[in-house]
# Entry
Amino acid sequence: DARVTQTPRHKVTEMGQEVTMRCQPILGHNTVFWYRQTMMQGLELLAYFRNRAPLDDSGMPKDRFSAEMPDATLATLKIQPSEPRDSAVYFCASGSSGHGLAKNIQYFGAGTRLSVL
Amino acid sequence: DAKTTQPPSMDCAEGRAANLPCNHSTISGNEYVYWYRQIHSQGPQYIIHGLKNNETNEMASLIITEDRKSSTLILPHATLRDTAVYYCIARGGGGADGLTFGKGTHLIIQP
# Structure
């Protein structure tokens, strides 16, 4: 059963520390998305990649957040330095942008629940 | 993306059909209607999508009005496990882009 895998599932850290979240997309998917969910803002798109190239990171605070895809099987979201307002659940999703298909079927991981104290 | 409007919450009795409405009066001709749901503490889950015609899969049915200004997601025999927030999204099919999630409908299945 193919699924998106996110690690860690839970992370508690102190303000100022670096946080790295990892995502393994479904094999064969060429598009990877990062979302953040809070009670106040709901689900927000942070950034996404197609064929490992960043397409849009306009939803991401540039000064402290960075997203990369070192290879096709790994996407990372890094926060440095972390702040209490970054506390949220971070979801990774993957999908395919095949020609002729309705392309917005995304498969989500279980999320990383981040608490910054 | 076209703006979508959903009721904030709905109740449905277990075993009955749950009908979740969505208005998308400004939808354009190439925009699909997608439905996702999010069960508590889980990631969103794709349910179904459609462009013009009604669609059915193993999870649900999607009825889109002829003028495409609204749609209804139908869960034919709701179970307690269907309690979740359901999101209706209108999105173009021209490239896999990020989804814009509204507040959705919190569907509560009552035993």
Q: What stands out?
A: The first strand of chain A starts at residue 5 and ends at 7. DSSP finds no helices and eleven strands in chain A. Chain A touches chain B through 29 residues (CB under 8 Å).
